Amino acid sequence: MSAKQDDDLNARLARVRVVLINTSHPGNIGAVARAMKNMGLTQLVLVNPAEFPSGEARARASGATDVLEQARVVSSLDAAVADCAVVLGTSARLRSIPWPTLDPRAAAEQVLDTTESAEAALVFGRENNGLSNEELDRCNYLVHIPANPEYSSLNIAAAVQVLVYELRMTLLDQLGRRDNRFHSDQPRATAGDLEQLYDHLQQTLTELDFLKPSAPRQIMRRLRRLFGRAELDRMEINILRGILSATREKLAQTKTEESER
Ligand code: SAH
Q1: Mutational pocket test of ligand 1: of 19, 24, 77, 91, the residue with most ligand atoms within 8 Å of the beta carbon
Q2: Residues 72, 196: one domain?
Q3: Is residue 152 in contact with ligand 1, taking CB distance under 6 Å?
Q4: Could you tell me the pTM of the whole model?
Q5: Is the dihedral of CA 242, 246, 247, 251 positive or negative?
Q6: 27 lies in which domain range?
Q7: pLDDT tens-digit series, residues 94-136
Q8: Buried b (16+ CB within 10 A) or exposed e, 165-190
């Protein structure tokens, strides 16, 4: 991971602000700060919070008190988002008039397109009754986390966490920084190595009377399919072949002992 890519990632996330409207529980503000810092976001804007600053917010922020200390307190949503090119409002319910609605993944793409050159805002509503229609009117899009329809309202900090996690994942994708493949510390086995393993396996299984030369060859085909998926490396092939050699030696020894008896 290059330093340049890290700078890009941080710069893009620094242009996304989280706006909380009229939050009543200071603990939630702290939990939001923590969720943001975990995913690399720094800009928190509080519109008329019930209590701020607060000891409870600091306690819940854990190591993210820097995000709290830099938080801006403003008196209206307009003031919070005036300089943003895109404003996304999050909602636990779908509103009466259809409004363009995105899921968190699509929302992340929308936000990140914007942050190449401008600021973007994610707006979160009151714990008891969400965002008002007037507030939703100020949003280009709504974002709805597709939760259980019978119980769709998440705690506000949990909702922030879902949104900012998707932002970070999308950005890692865009920067080519996601790599879930396993990389062995040994060279990958070749087709030739695998053919030798299959020969060895077939001989051993035949000597064990597990494979009958007359029976259909489905077992070897299924074993090929199994090992073909396993992305074996050379060392693993050597271990397996070592086991097969030891099995054959033991078998030969047992047979000799039996014939000598
Ligand atoms: N009782 C309120 C829910 C408020 S939950 C209502 O019915 O609107 C507090 C905030 O968390 C919401 O305003 C929204 O910003 C966010 N939130 C909670 N659940 C969400 C969901 N399923 N999708 C998107 N945002 C959600």
Answers
A1: 91
A2: no
A3: yes
A4: 0.86
A5: positive
A6: 3-174
A7: 777 788 999 999 999 999 999 999 999 999 999 999 999 999 9
A8: ebbbbbbeebbeeeeeeeeeeeeebe
